[in-house]
Amino acid sequence: MDQKAIESAVTQLLRAIGEDPQRPGLKETPARVARMYAEVASSIGHQPEDFTNYKVFHVYDSPRMVTVQQIPFYSLCEHHLLPFFGEASVAYVPRDGQVIGLSKIPRLVDYVTRRPGMQERVTTDLVKELQRLLNPKGIAVVINARHMCMEMRGINKRGQFTYTSKFTGDFDRDQSLREEFLVQVRAHHANM
Ligand code: ZN
Predict the structure, then answer these.
(1) Would you say the pTM of this structure is higher than 0.85?
(2) I want to staple 125 with a disulfide (CB 3.0 to 4.6 A). Which of 109, 112, 135, 175 is the partner?
(3) Range of 15's domain?
């Protein structure tokens, strides 16, 4: 990432909106913003294939489904570069006892959200990545998120959640499995 280019772009942006980039409160802002982008857009330039930080385990007598719920994430909408943030819940049905370390799923969520994007694509990217890593018998992903581009501008709807979901394989076919997952998600979502 080109930190110097970000700094000069932010300086120009501040000037363009009628601010004085030299005033004390803003003097350090371009450098801060550059450091911030290094963090919130750290996945850019990595192809999904680069996600190698995981290990697949084999368990005998594997559970019917593995669920990791309410994984918090923060991302930037690619249309306005404003934050959207919320929680992702992910489940899969292991194939042949193949499971992934539980902490890897939140990492996967970080991985697909640390760049400008869309909630819809985050949802399908999570499915794609899990498919690639584990080839499970089914995947469920549900995301609830708030979009600052809908709240602080545009339609100005405060506190609205956007819901997206994708179900593949067993979750697509088996309604009782899907329901078991969704009941858990709804129960926890009440606390959000
Ligand atoms: Zn937006």
Answers:
(1) yes
(2) 112
(3) 3-40
- Number of domains the chain contains: 2
pLDDT tens per residue, range 59-117: 888 888 999 999 999 999 999 999 999 999 999 999 999 999 888 899 999 999 999 99
Strands 83-93 and 66-77: antiparallel
79 is catalytic: yes
CA–centroid distance, 153 to ligand 1, in Å, is 9
Single-letter code of the amino acid located at 116: P
Q: Which of 22, 79, 120, 160 is catalytic?
A: 79
pLDDT digits (tens, 9 = 90+) for 31-66: 999 999 999 999 887 765 556 656 788 888 888 899
Please give the Cα distance from 80 to 154 (Å, whole number): 11
